[in-house]
Amino acid sequence: MARHYVTIKDIAKILNISVSTVSRALRDTYDVNQETKEKVLALAAELNYKPNFNATGLAKGSTHNLGVILPFITNYYFSTVITGIQEVAYNNGYNITLFVTNDSPERELAIMENLSVSSLDGLLVSISSDSDSCNHFQEIIDEGVPVVFFDRVANEIDTSKVMQDDYNGAFEAVEHLILNGYTKIAHIAGPKGMSFTEARLKGYIDALTKHHLRINEDWIVYSGFSQEYGEQDTYQLLQLKQQPDALFAVNDRKAIGAMIALKNKGIKVGEEFGVIGFTNDPMSTIISPALSTIAEPAFEIGKLSCELLIKHITKPKYFHGEEIVLPGKLIVRESSMRKAKH
After folding, report:
1. Cα 278 from chain centroid (whole Å)
2. Domain ranges, residue 17
3. Which of 124, 127, 164, 183 is least enclosed by beta carbons within 10 angstroms?
4. Which positions ≥6 away from 284 have C-beta within 8 Å?
5. Are 326 and 164 in contact (CB under 8 A)?
6. Is residue 54 domain-resident?
């Protein structure tokens, strides 16, 4: 984004202090000493610094518009999150504008570069799966715009985040398979490097370790989130010399893809091969056999993330970032119900 005016980065460089310190000094927060504030304000005046975002408007919430950046709007999980966001936003007099990345980091960056932040009081963000850097979000926070992450979060950025308990949900899912007699359990994971991909993988590994089951690296497959990826991953597993007898999928769409692949190979889901997902998508009750899963609190995640954002907007000097982790719930259906062997 071409900028032809002084930024807080310029002020920070001249004064040899951090960008975040400059941002807080300009917003007159309590955690910056008076001497530093005076230096920042004096230099800002000297350089004719004009903020990219009207901090006074921010404090008053004067635009009453919130931006929501998310990977998809067509799947059940994100549409439910949006419903939760809308409820809180509208009840507090805010409108929302959706920006959809289609899970593309390039599109995410383009949206941020073209975002008219002066028309927004704050942003709710779920990052795209291949985002290598979240500097574009840090820059907008440093300019004084509140940002709250939900579901897919940027771990390196210090702001509020709302997530489901990926680790314990995965652990419970895999332990459920073990207690139902499956001992060779694979994991069709999400993309490498994403925080919730890694958390669910760790839950999978720790459940196997607790029950003294071998961890086979060939049975861990990383790919995208779609049903098609679930099919492809499962065909890959079924071509191995040592085949699993169950799998835990990173989400329900991949689990449903796995079930389709198993059916195409004449393998009975549940009876011969256990499958469990993560989300509780409505499709999990329609497919036959019905899919066991970990239900995510999508609506609550939307509500809480929006509530936190409004606190950041209305109380910028007094409200600190929070990290909220909500538990999931095991829902047992036919796809994982082979009786334990004795």
Report:
1. 14
2. 8-46
3. 183
4. 252, 255, 256, 277, 290, 291, 293, 331, 333
5. yes
6. no
Q: At what angle do helices 76-91 and 298-314 cross, to 10 degrees?
A: 40
Token pair 């207690």 is found at 179
Vertex 316 angle, CA 313 and 317, to 5°: 165
Same domain flag for 272 and 206? yes
DSSP 100: E
Nearest to 248 by CA among 206, 213, 268, 277: 277
At position 86, the amino acid (one-letter code) is Q
Q: Radius of gyration of the chain from Cα atoms?
A: 23
Predicted confidence pLDDT, tens digits, the chain (342 residues): 444 467 778 888 888 888 778 877 877 766 778 888 888 888 888 888 766 544 444 444 467 899 999 998 888 899 999 999 999 999 999 999 999 999 888 999 888 888 776 788 999 999 987 665 677 888 888 878 899 999 988 888 889 999 999 999 999 999 999 999 999 999 999 998 888 899 999 999 999 999 999 999 999 999 999 999 999 999 999 999 999 999 999 999 999 999 999 999 999 999 999 999 999 999 999 999 999 999 999 999 999 999 999 998 888 766 778 999 999 999 999 999 985 443
Which residues is 293 bridged to in the sheet?
Answer: 331
Residues 180 and 159 in one domain: no
Tokens of 115: 């975002």
Please report whether residue 57 resides in a domain.
no
Q: Does the residue 275 lie in any domain?
A: yes
Other Cβ atoms less than 10 A from the Cβ of 13: the count is: 12
Tell me how many degrees the CA angle 273-277-283 measures, rounded to the nearest 5: 100
Residue 35 makes CB contacts below 8 A (sequence gap 6+) with none
Domain tally for the chain? 3
Handedness of CA 195, 197, 203, 205 (dihedral sign): negative
- Which helix or strand (DSSP H or E) is residue 260 part of? helix 252-264
pTM as predicted: 0.77
